[in-house]
Amino acid sequence: MPSGPLVPLIKTAHAETLVGLLKQFETDIYPLLRAAGLPEDLLNASHEYLPETPVKHLLALMAERAEPRYFGELLRTTLRERVLPPLMLQLDNPATLGEAINQLSTALRHESPTVQVDLQYFNRVPWLCRYKAGEHSEGYRWAEIFSVLFLIEFVGLASKSQWQPSGIAIQSDSGDVLAAILAAQWPANATQARIFANRRVAAVELSEALLSQPFHLPARFSDTNPLGEPVEHQYLETVYLALTPYLSRQALSLSEAATLLDTSPRTLQRKLAEAGSSFNQVRENIVLATACRLMEDPRYSLTDIASTLGYADIAHFSRAFKRLTGFPPRDYRKRYLSAPVPD
Question: Considering the entire predicted model, what is its pTM?
C-alpha cells in the first residue's frame, strides 16, 4: 500500500547558508536555531538533508529580526552568489534559457527531492512555475518569497541581464512584502511587476523571446557538470533522512518527530505502518546506525558515544546496543579498530 507523499527535505548545505545570513544580524544564533527546531550541531554535523519545516521556521524568525527590504536583499545576494552558481553547473550544457529551464527541475530534485518546478503556458504566455501545497504560516510565506526570488535570480543570471518579470503569481497574500523587496532592487523608473496573490502556484511570467536567449554560466565557471537523474526516494527513506539529524538525541518523542515533519502523531504512525515500519523501529535504527558510525571513529570513546546518543551512562548504552545487535559495543569496535580505544 502506498504511504503517501514524501517528507519535504532540504539539503543541509542550504540551511547552513541561511545560518551564514543569520550571523550578519544576530550575535548568538543558537537560541534562534532551537526556536526554529533545527539541530544545534547543524554546523558541525555531516547529515545530507534536513526536514523542510524547521528551515521555513528559521526563515520566518530571521525575517522578524531584519527589516524586510534589507532581508530581501540579503536573500537575493545569497541566491546570486552562493545558491545558483553551483546549481547551474549541474545543467547539461543548455544552449538557450528555455533549455536551461527544462533542466532546472532535475537539478533541483538533487537538492530537495519533493521540489516541483517547470514551464507552463497560460493563455499562450510562458510562466516558470513552482508547485507547493499552500499553508497559512509565516514560514510558508517567507519560503514562497524565497522561491519567487530564486526564480527571478535564476532567469537574470542565466540570461546575463537585469531581468525583471512583468507578472508574478503567489499562493499566499504576501504581495506587499514581495513588492517592497523587489522595488528596493529595481530602478525607480522601472515598470513594477504585477503581483497576483492567492493563486494556485507561485510563478514568474516569461516570454518566447526570453526563452530563446542564449544560456550563460556565471563568469567564474567554464563548463557544466551534469549529475544525471536524481535518486527516486520512497516515503520511509525520506523519514529516515529527515529525522537522522535529530535522533542522535535518543529521547526524541513521536510528538516531536511529527512536529518536525509537519504532520500529526497519528498520521505519522499510520504512514509508517503503511510503509511496514513504526516510529520506535525508525528511532532504534537511526540510533543504531549513528552508534556504529561513531564507533568506527577512534576519536570517540564509548563514554563519548553514549553521551552523544542521549544515554545516561555507558552501561545503559551497552545494554541497548547489545539488545539491538546481539553483541556488546566493545566487540563491535574490535571488528574495525585494531588498537585499543578508551571507554
Answer: 0.83
